[in-house]
Specification:
By secondary structure, this protein is α/β, with parallel strands linked by helices. It is about 45% helix and about 15% strand. It has a domain of about 170 residues: HAD superfamily/HAD-like (Rossmann fold, 3-Layer(aba) Sandwich), CATH 3.40.50.1000. The strands form two sheets. It has a six-stranded parallel sheet, sandwiched between helices. The protein has a two-stranded antiparallel ribbon with strand order 4-5. Bound molecules: magnesium ion (MG). GO terms for molecular function: metal ion binding; phosphatase activity.
């Protein structure tokens, strides 16, 4: 049995920005017409980004320019240290993100963190033979109202826990680290013994505070807001220290 599974969002959680928006900035803004903007509302974010990637390619923006923009996205303070710390403690780390497989793999490799991440769940992407980046929806879902149609993070987490259990890997505790609206669904599926880490001042933090204000009791896990990865290391260390004391008495 592993003691802890830590689930990370990517944009604004591991990295301190949104990689999709960073790459979009490689395109001059006059190329993003109202018709392109409309795609976001009508067909969702993945369809919108596919069009951005097509326009980037058409404008002559190269694979290596996109790669450079992604790998220079700064890590959120303390996050690289947190992931290294979890790896050193033999904890399991996964990422569930609405970015895409190319950006996340490129960033993790250039930050020397790929070895510390067991699995990445995100929209699959790849460059075609002409050098245009193509992206697909991770899945199509219509069962979760909290999530977008291409990505229910809670469902993905449930399936992952089942999959690991089927080969004998179980977790005594799950921690979820995120910032966004689409991180709420997985957090609500966690139990009293689990931990939720919303980034302070971001959307997930606000949603959870609103729930607390409205005495909405759906959140079972304990909530700890964070500003840096060091805050999370401190909280986890406190829990482990406390558990050790409890188990000795
Ligand atoms: Mg995020």
């Amino acid at each position: 049995m592993k003691s802890l599974l830590v689930v990370f969002d990517f944009d604004h959680t591991i990295v301190d920005d949104n990689t999709d928006l960073i790459v979009q900035k490689l395109l001059s803004s006059d190329k993003i017409t109202d018709d392109v903007k409309k795609l976001h509302r009508t067909d969702g974010w993945t369809a919108y980004m596919q069009e951005i990637f097509r326009l980037l390619h058409k404008s002559g923006v190269t694979h290596s320019e996109i790669h450079d923009a992604v790998i220079h996205t700064p890590a959120t303070p303390g996050m690289a240290e947190l992931i290294q710390f979890l790896y050193s403690q033999n904890m399991e780390v996964i990422i569930v993100s609405d970015a895409n497989s190319v950006f996340i793999k490129d960033w993790l490799c250039s930050s020397s963190l790929a070895h510390a991440v067991e699995r990445v769940f995100t929209n699959p992407a790849s460059y075609d033979k002409d050098g245009c980046l193509n992206i697909e929806m991770y899945h199509f879902q219509d069962f979760c109202e909290l999530s977008t149609k291409n990505l229910c993070k809670g469902h993905i987490l449930d399936l992952y826990i089942e999959e690991r259990a089927s080969i004998g890997v179980t977790f005594s505790q799950i921690a979820y680290v995120g910032d966004g609206r689409n991180d709420l669904c997985p957090c609500l599926r966690l139990s009293e013994k689990d931990l939720v880490f919303p980034r302070e001042g971001f959307q997930l933090d606000k949603l959870i505070r609103d729930m607390q204000d409205q005495k909405d009791m759906r959140m079972k896990a304990k909530v700890h807001v964070w500003k840096t990865g060091s805050d999370i290391i401190r909280t986890l260390s406190d829990y482990w220290h406390q558990n050790k004391i409890d188990s000795e008495h």
